[in-house]
Amino acid sequence: MIQEEYKKQDFIKSYSKLSNLWTKISVPLRAIAVFTVTSFLSCGENIKQGAVNNILLFDTIQVNETYQIRNDLTMPKCSLTVRFIYPADDSENDRLKEIQELFVVNFFDESYSGLNPKEAVHAFKEHYFSEYKSFAEEYIDITEDKDELAMLLTGVGEFTNRIHFNRGDVVSFFTDGYRYTGLNPFVDYVKTACNINLKTGTLIQESDLFNDGYKEKLAPLIVQKIVEWHEVKDIEELKSYGGFRIEYIVPNNNFLIDAEGITYLYEVYEIAPHSSGRSEAFLPYSEISLYLKKNSVVAEWAGLK
Description:
2 domains, 10 strands, 28% helix
């Protein structure tokens, strides 16, 4: 499988929900850290709005750090930028802790479960640089050629999340970012989605939205939308254009919700080689209403109520 081929190329162990993005990189350095916390209401301009938004306050934790190997300006360095948006105090939602937990776990991974947002960001940063330190030391011991070290070990990582939609007891957000190190010839990107039911404090899964048998019915529609996304003529051109494996283009539970429809996201290597990049497939409710459950959280927007 394409995914397995990619894992073999990644000489460093992937370790989070951002696994297609992260590699184990590390180095002994002194950090320059900047932490800021800002607050904003749910009606921010980046949020896709409907008639009535959920009353929810968000905070943002930002981290910008640069580690310089051995505090030597002639050596490579690794930088990390994190911008993590999460629900803050909300007296009107008694499920705030559960919702915060879902933001943490879906931005980082399950190993950060039980940590509050600030603790999770700090732990993630420490792990990132700890792994970078361990890995870089191995290469420093092998060669003293600083040009070679700079080529191999200079690294950049930037990860953010954004609120896509916040209405009707649904919050939909996505994690977006990239990672680059000299040891990997490609810049790797990630965009993963998360949808939360604010009433229940649980994730919204495909099975919560669609009737049985939906995968077989949605797959051809998603393929056609990806043809349009990449601006090619037809499926055959899609396969020849970027080496797409049509059999891999199926509902993948990585989707965003809003009042207009559902958008499926496909990562690099998920359905095609790296050179083809990411893919998105927007399915308007008018085209999928027959496959939706009448009691789902999107039923009203789909005209089923």
